[in-house]
Design goal:
By secondary structure, the protein is an alpha/beta fold. The protein is built from twelve helices and 13 strands. It folds into two domains: 258 residues, TIM Barrel, CATH 3.20.20.70; 79 residues, hypothetical protein PF0899 fold, CATH 3.30.2320. The longest helix has 21 residues. The radius of gyration is 22 Å and the shape is globular.
Length: 360
Amino acid sequence: MSKDYYIIPIFVPHFGCPHDCVFCNQRRITGLSTDVTQDYVKKTIEEHLATFPKRDIVVEVAFYGGSFTGIPKEIQRELLSIPLEFKNQGRIKAIRLSTRPDYIDDDILNLLKEYDVDTIELGVQSLCDDVLYESGRGHNSKQVYMASKLIKEHGFNLGLQMMIGLVGDSREKSIFTGKEFIKLRPYCVRIYPTLIIKDTYLEKLYHQEKYKPLTLEEAIDISTDLIMLFEYNDINVIRVGLQPTENINFGKDVIAGPFHPSFRQLVESNKYKILLKDYLDKLKLDYDGKDLTIYVHQKNISNLVGQKSSNMKYFKDRYNFKNIRVYKKDLPKDIVELNISNTTLKLDMKYLTGQYVKGI
Ligand code: SF4
């Protein structure tokens, strides 16, 4: 049985960051690189560990914030020395951090090796140079390819983060970025729809009507295609959508954009909707007035049914089924069983995903 995985997140803001990403509101305070201290890191780890179950778990400490390796090296060393202590004591299993592609070189990677870091996630956002430029990222796609190669050569796990709906972005460009990610064979990826956050340049562009965010539907559609591309290629998608926090919410720091507290579930449900629709369309049976019974692994029931039974309503309307019932069954997670008027059909979702992604 696989062990439960726990992450201890430590946000390391990069004050004085010299970059101007249009979506970012990190304050520029010259002279101060971060206000995170060793004591804070130690306290945060201890506090989290105290709340976790004592047995059979895997714990990872993750430094988030987007540009860890851009802060002065002595501060990186100070901060990393704390999780390393915990790792050496066997109290945590892994260390992860996120950074920019242009903050990676041999020296930096040697330092991170010294502190036994396991995973390095790159905030790539896009592999289209025009999108990177218009988003004020201050790095280009070539630097992403080089950093990814170096990270892998040094034996770290590579994580890649992308954003969709950036300035100058399009569905085609996001899919291109996704396909390029697959060629880089990352260990994991994250997909973030661009949100308009208070006090950012993007907010200004939005009020000047020079930037239009994706609608929730558009963001779900693009993310669904991306998630299918990644999953079909056995790449673990560890996050889709920003995590709602005290401030990441409408009425707080989110001014506009495709924000939804359960964004990933909407994407997973959309995946089932697309795959089942394609299958039923091709099958061309007479569904009119028939009963449809669906059996699925317990973990996939809510994704299949959709929020407020949206998928069930959709299939009922589209094919005029009399009733649709969904039951859990001890099936492999990729298998869905359909029963239509005593005809039983076994669907392999991975195979159907493969058929679908050929057309992306
Ligand atoms: S997102 Fe861009 S501007 Fe914000 S901290 Fe990271 S690199 Fe700096």
